[in-house]
Automatic annotation (TrEMBL):
Listed name of the protein: Glutamate-1-semialdehyde 2,1-aminomutase
Annotated organism of origin: Cytobacillus oceanisediminis
Entry GO MF terms: pyridoxal phosphate binding; transaminase activity
Names of the cofactor(s): pyridoxal 5'-phosphate
Keyword match Metal-binding: no
Top-rank taxon, per record: Bacteria
CDD domains: OAT_like
Amino acid sequence: MDPVNNLYEVYSKNTKTSCEFMEKAKTVMPEGVTANIKSFAPHPIVMEKGHGAYLTDLDGNKYVDYLLSYGALMLGHGHPEIIEAITAQLHSDGTALFGTPHRLEVEMAQKVQEHYPSMELVRYTNSGTEATLLALRLAYSYTGKYKIAKFEGHYHGGYDQVLLSVNPPVNEAGPVNEPNAIIESKGVDPYHQEHTIILPFNNIEACADILTKYKDEVAAVVLEPIQGGFIPAEQSFMDGLRKLTEELGILLIFDEVKTGFRLGLGGAQSVYNIKPDLTALGKVVGGGFPVGIIGGKKEILMVSAPTSASDVFDNSQSKQSAAKDVLFHSGTYNGHPTILTAGLKTIEVLELEIDQVMETTDELKKGIEALFTAKGIAMKAVGKGTIFNVVLTEKEEILNYRDLQQSDFVTRKIIDFHLLNHGIYTKPLNRYSLSTVHGKKEIDLTLEAYENVLSKL
């Protein structure tokens, strides 16, 4: 196969205008991006248009899109039913934003509860990050305990309590059964290394030892039921974790930002038949717009009910802070009517079409695996539902972060850049997400590109 430098040369030639534009972007944004995850060497591709399952860049190159904004666009780009719905909402409501309660808040909550009955009450936020942040605050408030436990390799947003041991160097990560808490960013207070306990995924015995030790301090265990959207929890692990947290008086929080409406309409909790105490949703439920939803047991959510005061600025009922006994949660754009309209329409379409997306995903996974097998290259398409990742490994199973780190990232990255040069888009090393508009044509194009690329190995 071509050396990496030559591969980058071809890539840079194909995306020359993107390269030039990124230099301009660097004059107004750090490294030219407004989110670190959007940056990669030698330069990211700057997109100009999205339509259906495709993206077109500044140079006019067209790609089958498997990034789909990290899984958010489950109806693809510019779905006509979403455009029609939000246009009608703007006309009928006469505004994009009320700043007051409105009917769509209730309609969306009821629709979510149809598929996630564990979410007895809900609150809206502006991102999945905000949803998990509020989940932790609810857990602290409800339990009166102020440590949390998260799993090594799991991502829950970019804030201090959870920005630990997401992608830690294995040589610093500590024992596999009792991982160290490794800070993932400058600016994170080391305090959180003592207040965020790191657990090993898919190892219930080790989790039991750690959580029993900290049971009087840990408010909640938060996890991605499918790590990174593609490494599934084992059923026995999920059953054991639910039982363990209940016995120890620790809340269980499912971060279903990636998996919500992607493993089926009811997400991971329906697949595993587990009822978490709190659930965070995002991505798909925004229909391409920024959103988060947090929901769970009524008695936990009621901690945020403004029964004694409407907000922290209202001190009319007390000489002290009127909100001191209420968990504060607010936001100008929470429950944005246009966003909820897009989310509702997305769910309605998925109620009719999600089975087809699952079948298409399975077809693509099997096709890629067959091509690797024919070349004698060890590889697994790891994932459930409508998300998977291509993992180059000889291991029988990928159960956790440590297993994943033993895979061949170098060859995978080379393959990804070749695929970009052949019009197949995902960020190098990232997972594949599919949508309702990925069909036979897109699968055939993808498998043809893979066959071409693998012939060069």
